[in-house]
Specification:
CATH class of the largest domain: Alpha Beta
Number of domains: 2
CATH topology of the largest domain: Nucleotidyltransferase, domain 5
Distance between the termini: 81 Å
Shape: elongated
Order of helices and strands: EEEHEHEHHH
Number of strands: 5
CATH architecture of the largest domain: 2-Layer Sandwich
CATH superfamily of the largest domain: Ribonuclease H-like superfamily/Ribonuclease H
Strand order of the largest sheet: 3-2-1-4-5
Radius of gyration: 27 Å
Largest sheet: 5 strands, mixed
Amino acid sequence: MEILYPRCAGLDVHKETVVACVRCVSEPPHSEVRTFSTMTSGLLELNQWLESHRCTHVAMEATGVYWKPVWHVLEGNFELVLANAQHIRNVPGRKTDVNDAMWIADLLAHGLIRSSFVPPAPIQELRDLTRTRSSLSGRCRSTRCASRRCSRTRISSSTASCRASSARAVARC
């Protein structure tokens, strides 16, 4: 098969680590695999490592939200491809993080990965803000409902032994 991207990398992203495989078929041809932390310092080290190999394209698997910090650190320096995990599924068998990273790099080199849509940074920020707002308003609503249930319980239990006129006086307060 024809190689479209002679200097590329595949990333297998997890919660605490990123396994990266650089695949270079241009002179000098080589392949190298390293593991990095997902902390900011580790991601910056990954960025420098990819730049030192003069990678032009980087592909990563979209699993959960773990890809987001990696994407934001690498965004300005490389042509990034976010791949749907189901589209790049490897052959069943010996599945390791290193094999996954090498598989992703190989697919990218041949142009066999279709990129998922990642909105521009301002749209991402707006989406995050909207999600946070709806989450907080949902919490407020549930807190309000809980406090109403609690206050109704107190009134009804305290009025059980009172006369009707006393109960009306309590309810007015």
